[in-house]
Please model this.
Amino acid sequence: MSINPYWPNPNANSTTPAPAKTLVQATYDAMREDILSGLLGPGTKLRADKLKDRYDVGASTLREALNLLVGEALVASEGQKGFRVTPMSEADFQDIVRVRKQLETQALRESIAHGDDDWEAGLVGAFHRLTKIEERLQEDPSGLSGEWEVRNRGFHAALIAACPSRWLHYFISILFHQSERYRRISLSRSHTNGGSAKRDVHAEHEAIFNAAIDRNADLACELTEQHIDRTLSFLTDKGFFQHLQDMENR
Model:
């Protein structure tokens, strides 16, 4: 089974040596992380002089990294005006959720249909690694959140790893990172209220895992749709979208 180039290798672990990065790749990775975490907030004007100092790179390296982020829709090009972090809105996230459900369930069906023993082994390993971090997440949420993000991405990548369509993988990875940005930024904002929604994310992951391993594509897809929908409900309940609207009206 070939490894999908757009997602993490579900069989990799923290002891696997990482390939050497080019300067463009390292700059792109650093900028993307700053956007996903909210350090570079939605709508932020990306001024070249400040970015060159921030990431200690030259103009050509910076522009190549920015163009890669434009390709992921995390940065918007404004022609002669430069670049800006892509804005966020409730309507945008609703659209992300709608398309994610369509593409991920299609990829999951194909992955379950084509998955072999190697796919199952990769999925079992990814779920085990995710389970271990989720068991400890309540002990140190802020300290373990970064590792949880890595293992969560790995689990979702493993679910669809046997899907043969590289285009499905490509667009799903873009939408997954867009969704991750909304979730991570909302969790980092103290303005959001506690809300009433309670989620057992591990139970959601476990149910999807069991359905996929049992080759029950209909149930696995239904649970995946619910899993994605709950993130929208969670952010709405926390008052995140109201905050975005308030910020826009200032």
Q: What stands out?
A: The CA atoms of residues 31 and 54 lie 10 Å apart.
